[in-house]
Amino acid sequence: MGEEREDPQKLKRIAAAAYDYENDPRWADYWSNILIPPHMASRSDVVDHFKRKFYQRYIDADLVVEAMPSSSSSQPAKQSASASAATNDQARPRSSGSSTRSSGTSATAGSNSNQTSLRWDRKTIQFSVNAWVFIVAVLAMFPLIPRSLSSRAYRLAFIGSACSSLYSLYSLHGTPRAWNLPAIQVYFQSIIATKDFIHFIYCLTFVTSHLGLKLALIPILCRALEHAAKFLRRNFSRSTLYRKYLEDPCVWVESNITTLSILSSHSEIGLGFLLIISLFSWQRNIIQTFMYWQLLKLMYHAPATAGYHQSVWTKIGRTVNPFVQRYAPFLNSPISAIQRWWFR
């Protein structure tokens, strides 16, 4: 009977292991939002565990995912605990020897606590920056704020979000192995399609712009809201204040991450057309417009954002193509040339 019960789960685990995660844009988005230390993100067992969690969430909800086994960092703690127990047993006959061993044990426990506090500090810093970005972005979008304060909050929101993306890139991917051209090229090839790098370039594009496009703050707000909600749910779920005021909004944010990503992609593509329109005004910036459309092209092809952007462009094509065919067929040649560049 036990084997019959285990067979379905065994088949599901085999199917989960054989699933093509790399060609599923949801996996790249899911993995980019997993906040774990860099040394754990490089371990194959950790990646396989989160792949099974992804498969359970999006593909087969009946798959049973076991808890991830404790990491090797728990072994020093066990060794230190056994060493302290041995020290206590030997404390009566040999007090001087026990003091030496206990100091070594306390040093081991202290190093473990320092590593834990370091990991905690990284998450706390990320949360603090994203919460600050959310507040200043709301101030920048609020219509009753004075213009000088609104423009300053606008730039601070992009600077803060750029710093958050850069810190996340450093936490997940570290730095180049060597500071020479080949090593830097390999490093950039590994991060250029990640969501954090794309968001970092997006922030740099608008923080230096003279156009105060409030629509550009929507992706900033969505990202900050998503990261802040995840941190609050993971670390303050037992807090009375959280349960009373923040639990429902955080649950809503985590259950509507796809909606927020679709909203961000709509606003990012809309900004591209607004920049084209701005070329006919005195505030035009040809270089910024060209660079931003290169970024939109990267968003269309990068796995982390491709699913959402391709969906929006498909809707735009279904809406615009009938009008072009009916009222402006002479635009078919320019549109075909643009499409060849876009898909290249």
From TrEMBL:
PANTHER family assigned to the protein according to its UniProt record, in alphabetical order: TRANSMEMBRANE PROTEIN 33
Tell me the domain of life. Eukaryota
Q: Does the keyword Metal-binding feature in the UniProt annotation?
A: no
Per the record, where are the segments of Low complexity compositional bias? 70-86, 93-113
Is Transmembrane helix among the key words of this record? yes
Region of interest: Disordered: 70-115
Q: Which organism is it from?
A: Rubroshorea leprosula
Q: Give UniProt keywords alphabetically.
A: Membrane, Transmembrane, Transmembrane helix
Membrane-spanning parts: 127-146
What the entry lists under InterPro entries is as follows:
PER33/POM33_regulator, TMEM33/Pom33
What is this protein called in UniProt? Transmembrane protein 33 homolog
